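Issue 218. Parser rejects a valid record. Input:
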Amino acid sequence: MKSMIITPKPSDPEVFVLSKEFNKRGYDIQYFIPSSVKVNIEKSSFGALFDDLDPYGALVRGFGAAITQKIFFRLDLLSAMEEYGLKLINSRQSLEIASDKFLTSLFLEKHNLPTPKTIICENPEDAIIAFEELGNDVVIKPLYGSRGVGITRIRDKGFAENVIYTLGQLNEVFYLQEFVEHKNRDIRILVLGDKAIAGMYRVSDTWKTNIHAGATMKPIDLTKELTNLAVKAAKVTRTEIAGVDIVETKKGLSILEVNSIPGFTALQKVTEINLAEEIVNYFLNNV
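Output the parser choked on:
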């Protein structure tokens, strides 16, 4: 039997662990590497890539593009795969929503889920006004990206103007979010379908709580409130396998992001649940 993992990097340690879980069940893994794909617009060419998959689906673990044209092309590849009937987990729509901080914020707000006040715009003048509207203490984030890269907290108007006008010269979109006091920790929860599988605190010496920015993991007991909120956040962003980031604020829980290709290495260190096994089980049971 064969199954497929979509990944820009088959040598990624998490892809390796997931592949071993598939192997345990008798599956050989075929890697779909977006950068190496040559598409000939014939059914016999593109569709043949998937003919021998059983079950007829693919586990998406990234598409690895930073340049706009490549992002759209690789999303197009996912759309083409779905057009051929391939079940993707997560779907192309999920990656489009959850990989885009603007759409994530919009979908959370539309479905009345708590999330920080956020303003998105292209005009630098509008961004400076937004800085003031959000209380002169904001976090500027790249529209796309992960691991805390490119995120900056700004509390001074002069500094805000310098940053905003510089980004404006680079034709960046401005995503400004009010800074929410969270005692230098947040919560990451892994959601599979209707279930919150496991969670952890990410604790830092600074306001940035990403593991790759130096935060440490601590175990957490998932409350019913946390579980319900995480599952709802995943559902409204159309994401079956999700990493939901939540902060505890004075006003209650608030959702920061939903990740459609969530890492699980750090979380695995604070739980006895075999996360790779759970992910592969979910995939095989739902394609």
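Fixed in the parser; the record now loads. The mean pLDDT is 91.
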